[in-house]
């Protein structure tokens, strides 16, 4: 009887680990154009102007405008990378217009999509 209980416990534990892995892998894939993202490792953004990246870049510009009391206008995301660490860190190079001059800016944004949370952690002109 004890052997059957141990086997059942082992099977349940294995199933729990597999289900957890599958569910979290699907969530990670949502935020990089359908490609899986490894936890704690920088991964290049394959579509820098994709639907998961643009709101983050626009948030970075809007937040910087509020903090620095400037009026940058978003143009596009040039490149970027993401890391999954208690949410997602986006490290983006963004093109924006300052008056009549186009400039490139480096923005880092920490997101927690399940909480609808974004935080601009750094922003600088390149």
Automatic annotation (TrEMBL):
One Gene Ontology MF term? cysteine-type endopeptidase inhibitor activity
Q: Which segments cross the bilayer? A: none
Q: Entry's SUPFAM superfamilies?
A: Cystatin/monellin (SSF54403)
Spell out the protein name for this chain: Cystatin domain-containing protein
Q: Which residues form the Cystatin domain?
A: 37-126
Q: Which Gene3D superfamilies match?
A: 3.10.450.10
Give the source's domain of life in one word: Eukaryota
Species classification:
Eukaryota, Viridiplantae, Streptophyta, Embryophyta, Tracheophyta
Q: Which UniProt keywords apply?
A: Protease inhibitor, Thiol protease inhibitor
